[in-house]
Amino acid sequence: MGNHQTIQSVRGMNDWGPVQSQQLQLIEQQAINVFAQANYLKTRLPILEQTELFSRGVGNATDIVEKELYSFADRNEQLLSLRPEGTAGLVRALIQNGWWQQGQVVRYQYLGPMFRRERPQKGRYRQFTQFGAEVFGGSQPIIDSELIQLSYEWFKRLGLNKNIKLHINTIGKLEDRKRYRAALIEYLQPFESQLDEDSQRRLQTNPLRILDSKIESTQQILQNAPKLKEFLSQESEEHFSQVLQCLETVGIEYHIDSHLVRGLDYYNDTVFEWVTDQLGSQGTVCGGGRYDGLVEELGGRTCPACGFAAGLERIEALLEVTSPAEESSQTDIYVICQHAKLSGVALKLSSQVRNLMPDIQVLCDSQLGSMKGQFKRADKSGAKIALIIGEEEYNAESVVIKPLRDERQQQLILLSNLNKILPTYFT
Ligand code: HAM
Q: Between these two residues, 177 and 294, which has the higher pLDDT value?
């Protein structure tokens, strides 16, 4: 006997129905267009990678690698992980496939599911979708600014530019951060027992993340801590001020957030996030920054880089707040057939019409039965016209066009005239 208990989805991995899927597709399409217009080439990369890619790329001491990877040993004992983000995989592909040559600047975009075993809540899922854009081979501040500008343009096309705010910071070069790290540890050590549990753990492994802590008592201790700003090289300061200058020229407002450090290890200099206050605690819709050392870290040549990724489900949730989508049936033409034996003819006609007018939605009745029932369903579908095939029409190689939304009379036309007559109902 079978086991008839229902099966639930994996926690934090959601089903998105037709309305949200439609919205997500719109969001994706806008992103693809905005970035394709600026020469960001499309890529598709594997969801599974060797675990080492993320421990080396994203960083062993990050939450993402330490606690959130979905990992397993393959049958040959090779350790694999579902990708928690897209940057490390793209860098691997760049090196492996030679997608970058010295002296060039190349731009790439990607879109797809990412996996992190976080504690699920609204806006935080274990499977989510990122759209990302990455630029390789350029160290100029104009690149950082272009990425921010294009992401802004994307939000603008979605009508969301008034709902988000740019938080930006510079975290300097690796050497600057090393010196700062030592100073921060020295300052925090006497307070160790007063720090929250996460921060205590991070003190030796990843002390900069403590700056990001949401715990009030920890933030109070941090008030007199040395500031990263005091450790920045002049080069970093200049880079940052040029990024900001570019943003001012293109008219993008920003908020310098000196606590913004981001949760991945590969960054240097510019880091940024687009944040909204309309989604509760998961209000970061997009994050990114410069990562000049990652290509080399993963075995490639020295290659400066900068990029970002956005969580599409969060953008969708924001769209739902600002302009809720409605379930919309878009049937334009409803095909009715008098007898089941004419089913094939109805399918053939539907397909002819779809090919004739690719933007028109054609629904072929599939319950058949009485004409009355079919007309009821045609009416309910919202279609503008019905196409009716009966035996007589079929024998005469013709079809009836019946307007459903206005007073026009129905007319019998020859199938050979369909090309000319049908489009006139949709002009
Ligand atoms: P991230 O900040 O970890 O950066 O993720 C980018 C965005 O993905 C977040 O701002 C958020 O919108 C979305 N996201 C992250 N985790 C979740 C989750 N559990 N549920 C729903 N959405 C989520 C990166 O992944 C970097 N690779 C970005 C980057 C690209 N930096 C340089 N290039």
A: 294
Give 115's Cβ-side CA count (13 Å radius).
15
Around Cβ 427, how many Cβ atoms within 10 Å? Answer: 4
Atom 20 of ligand 1, nearest CA residue = 124
In the structure, what pLDDT confidence band is assigned to residue 8 with cuts at 50, 70 and 90?
Answer: very high
**Mean pLDDT across the stretch 122-137?**
98
pTM over 0.85: yes
132 and 247 both lie in a single domain: yes
- The boundaries of the domain holding residue 355 are 333-426
Q: Among the atoms of ligand 1, which is closest to the Cα of residue 307?
A: 33
Q: Check pocket membership of 269 for ligand 1, CB cut-off 6 A.
A: no
Asked if 302 and 421 sit in the same domain, the reply is no
Q: Is the CB of 285 under 6 A from ligand 1?
A: yes
- CA-nearest of 137, 152, 143, 164 to 242 is 143
Compute, in angstroms, the gap from residue 347 CA to the centroid of ligand 1.
45
274 plus 156 within the same structural domain:
yes
Number of structural domains (the chain) is 2
Is 125 touching ligand 1 by the criterion CB < 6 Å? yes
The b/e string for 295-311 (b: 16+ C-beta within 10 A; e otherwise) is beebebeebbbbbbbbb
Bridge partners (DSSP) of residue 385 are 333, 403
Amino acid found at 124:
R
Residues 380 and 287 in one domain: no
Domain for residue 6, yes or no?
A: no
| Identity of the residue numbered 399 | V
Q: Which of 53, 69, 257, 264 should be mutated for ligand 1, with most atoms under 8 A from CB?
A: 264
Q: Does any domain span residue 308?
A: yes
* 296 & 258 share domain: yes
Residue to substitute in 284, 313, 315 for testing ligand 1 pocket (most ligand atoms within 8 angstroms of CB): 284
Cα of 420 from ligand 1 centre, angstroms:
51
What average pLDDT is seen over the chain? 95
Domain of 413, CATH number, reads 3.40.50.800
End residue of a domain, out of 301, 322, 343: 322
- Cα of 310 vs centre of ligand 1, distance in Å, is 6
| 242, two tokens | 């040029």
Does a structural domain hold residue 217? no
Distance 17 CA to ligand 1 centre (A): 23
Confidence of residue 261 (pLDDT cuts 50, 70, 90): confident
